[in-house]
Amino acid sequence: MSDEPPRKPAMTIDNAPSFAAGPRQSIELDSDEALRLLGSVSLGRIVFTLHALPTIRPVNHVLDDGDIVIRTHEGAALTSYARQTDGPGVVVAYEADAIDPDTHLGWSVVVTGYAHLVTDPQDLARYQDLLHPWVKQTMDYAVRIRPDLVTGIRLAVTDQPSALPGGDSR
Fold first, then answer.
1. What per-residue confidence (pLDDT) applies to 135?
2. CA-CA 20 to 30 A from 158: which of 5, 13, 86, 138?
3. Is the pTM above the cut of 0.85?
């Protein structure tokens, strides 16, 4: 008999597709369509630099006149990061998507731009009314991201068989 504690069974994942798997195509979206899709969801991921390394945080957002606005709190890394600049802001990326886990169809949008703290009291009050954080925490700050580069793709079914190595299209 061993003195080691019993091991938990390995996690199993059911990889059986519930949808007939087939080839997909990636269709580029223009920036207007990409921003329209981004505005249709409320959850995304902000990417910024923390201690010289990329950091990603899930956040909820609102699209306001083409800008992405998120709420944050005192002590948050993003609040400190966005506060460090007086110029156009700090470079961030923002990603949102809606991809069906069964069919693997949907879209993904990435926005790269400059983020800065919202300092106008009227704008801040308006964002506090428009955007309600999902976590129970006081969120007294807002960060506005002005898109500089907007890219997106739509994953769609294609009629074309996929070419696998060796000419096999299965």
1. 82
2. 13
3. no
pLDDT, tens digit, 9 for 90 and up, residues 101-141: 999 999 999 999 999 999 899 999 999 999 988 888 888 89
Distance (Å, rounded) from C-alpha 155 to C-alpha 153?
6
Q: In the CATH scheme, what architecture does the domain 31-158 have?
A: Roll (2.30)
Quote the CA–CA distance of 49 and 91 in Å, as a whole number. Answer: 9
Ranges assigned E (strand) in the chain: 24-28, 43-50, 53-60, 62-64, 67-72, 90-99, 106-117, 141-157
First to last CA, the chain: 50
Model pLDDT for residues 58-87, shown as the tens digit of each residue? 999 999 999 999 999 887 888 887 877 677
